[in-house]
């Protein structure tokens, strides 16, 4: 197959006993060359979507320029497309510790979740219950709420310990009962950075005979997903949150998906998960999603399919340690600024390197605009985690959110802290 991809840096994928340094990683992100007001941009908007490294972009470009075709036909580019999609499914399955036949791709997590909800809800009705939580992104609430209108099910919501920024486990235990058909829960809060023990939650749900759907969109960039260890039945994540393109991924336990009556064109799909993929897929996006997983794996060593999972484990362990150090620095720095209020668990609790805060006397929009002018990009609002942000008292304007990624440096963290301090003075 023809390829136009550029040769990677000498260290990329090299045989080594360490994970690539932040400087080496940054060399693969052309977005980091952008300037604002004469200063290089510091991207803290990763919780809403990370920047994309060259290997991922080049994989997508190479597909579009040299292999672009529809699937399952008897000519070379179609066959090459089949191979590329199969590879992406394989590496994504390894990423989640699943089977390739349990992986479905879609436009985004929200679309996939609505589709799954309707497929599951087709057998549910009055008297059946679904449990959600107040901590979750509404992509893991609205699809299940829709079944209240379409199927007459009852949706119960577990509350949050607002001071801790964590699930109220007593509330969750009360919400789950003999009529519960599904628990929909997030592994990581995109607003507060909280990491929830979904394995513990799955035990509660399964003991009641219910299924478990996990939203791992915010979790997957920061902790390596293991659907077997989580003991979940379904899980969704978004490659654009871990250095890939705007696509969605859905894991579904093979036997459960095979039994679903999901809307699908004939003929029957080759694999159960394909019944959750409707229409012509975003082939370049799927190829890019697989490339994002391989990018993370190759940060810890040379490309080798048999060692991808161990390399991902090494990468995630190192990036977690770096992210924790950066987050502790960020939390301490912002905490020392008068008028700043931080939300979510402190650094000594299970969490991602994502901070939410407000500034007395300044709206979240004003804070974001002020920092942007200094080349520091943060996001603001409720990030579709509208319930928890409203419960914190910020329904009208939301909060400011800053997240550390694999390319974030201590100097960038200090710039963010300095910018907030200047605005508060």
Instruction: Name the CATH architecture of the largest domain.
Output: 3-Layer(aba) Sandwich
By CATH, the topology of the largest domain is Aspartate Aminotransferase, domain 2
Unreliable stretches (pLDDT < 50, length at least 5) are none
What coarse outline follows from CA principal-axis ratios? globular
Q: Going by CATH, what is the homologous superfamily of the largest domain?
A: Type I PLP-dependent aspartate aminotransferase-like (Major domain)
**Helix count, DSSP H or I runs of 4 or more residues:** 14
How does the helix and strand content classify structurally? alpha/beta
Strand order of the largest sheet: 4-12-11-10-9-5-6
Number of domains: 2
State the helicity in percent bands. Answer: 25-40%
Count of strand segments: 17
| Average pLDDT metric | 95
Question: What features would you describe in this structure?
Answer:
The protein is an alpha/beta fold and 425 residues long. The chain has two domains: 22-51 and 308-424, Alpha-Beta Complex (Aspartate Aminotransferase, domain 1); 62-297, Aspartate Aminotransferase, domain 2 (3-Layer(aba) Sandwich), CATH 3.40.640. Helices cover 39% and strands 15% of the residues. The protein has helices at residues 22-26, 54-66, 76-96, 109-121, 142-151, 169-175, 198-207, 227-230, 254-259, 283-298, 308-335, 364-373, 386-391, 410-424; strands at residues 35-36, 39-40, 42-43, 103-106, 129-133, 154-158, 160-161, 166-167, 180-186, 211-215, 234-237, 248-252, 340-343, 354-359, 376-377, 379-381, 399-403. The strands form five sheets. A seven-stranded mixed sheet has the order 4-12-11-10-9-5-6, sandwiched between helices. Strands 13-14-17-16 form a four-stranded antiparallel sheet, with helices on one face. Strands 1-2 form a two-stranded antiparallel ribbon. β10 (211-215), α8 and β11 (234-237) form a beta-alpha-beta unit. α3 packs across α10 and α10 (283-298) crosses α11. The longest helix has 28 residues, at 308-335. 50% of the residues are buried.
């Amino acid at each position: 197959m023809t390829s136009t991809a550029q040769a990677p840096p000498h260290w990329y994928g090299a045989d080594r006993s360490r994970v690539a340094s932040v400087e080496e990683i940054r060399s693969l992100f052309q977005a980091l060359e952008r300037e604002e007001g004469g200063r290089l941009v510091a991207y803290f908007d990763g919780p809403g979507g990370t920047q994309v490294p060259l290997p991922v972009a080049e994989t997508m470009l190479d597909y579009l320029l040299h292999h672009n075709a529809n699937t399952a036909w008897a000519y070379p580019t179609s066959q090459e497309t089949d191979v590329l999609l199969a590879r992406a499914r394989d590496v994504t399955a390894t990423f989640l510790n699943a089977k390739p036949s349990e992986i479905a791709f879609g436009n985004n997590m929200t679309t996939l979740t609505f589709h799954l909800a309707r497929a599951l809800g087709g057998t549910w009705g009055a008297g059946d219950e679904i449990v959600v939580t107040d901590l979750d992104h509404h992509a893991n609430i609205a699809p299940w709420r829709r079944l209240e209108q379409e199927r007459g099910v009852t949706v119960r919501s577990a509350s949050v310990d607002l001071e801790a920024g964590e699930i109220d486990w007593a509330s969750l235990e009360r919400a789950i009962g003999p009529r519960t058909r599904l628990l929909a829960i997030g592994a990581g809060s995109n607003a507060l950075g909280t990491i929830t023990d979904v394995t513990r939650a799955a035990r509660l749900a399964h003991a009641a005979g219910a299924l478990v759907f996990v939203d791992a969109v915010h979790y997957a960039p920061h902790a390596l997903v293991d659907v077997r260890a989580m003991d979940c039945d379904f899980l969704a994540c978004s490659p654009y949150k871990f250095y890939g393109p705007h696509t969605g991924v859905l894991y579904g336990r093979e036997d459960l998906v095979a039994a679903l009556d999901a809307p699908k064109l004939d003929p029957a799909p080759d694999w159960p998960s394909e019944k959750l993929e409707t229409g012509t897929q975003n082939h370049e996006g799927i190829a890019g999603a697989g490339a994002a997983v391989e990018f993370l794996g190759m940060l810890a060593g040379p490309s080798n399919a048999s060692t991808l999972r161990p390399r991902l484990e090494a990468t995630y362990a190192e990036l977690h340690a770096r992210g924790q150090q950066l987050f502790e620095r960020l939390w301490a720095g912002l905490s020392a600024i008068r008028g700043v209020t931080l939300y979510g668990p402190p650094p000594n609790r299970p969490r991602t390197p994502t901070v939410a805060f407000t500034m007395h006397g300044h709206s979240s929009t004003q804070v974001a605009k002020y920092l942007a002018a200094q080349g520091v990009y943060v996001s603001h609002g409720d990030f579709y985690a509208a319930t928890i942000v409203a419960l914190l008292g910020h329904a009208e304007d939301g909060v400011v959110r800053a997240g550390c990624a694999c390319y974030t440096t201590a100097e960038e963290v200090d710039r963010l802290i300095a910018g907030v301090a200047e605005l508060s003075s």
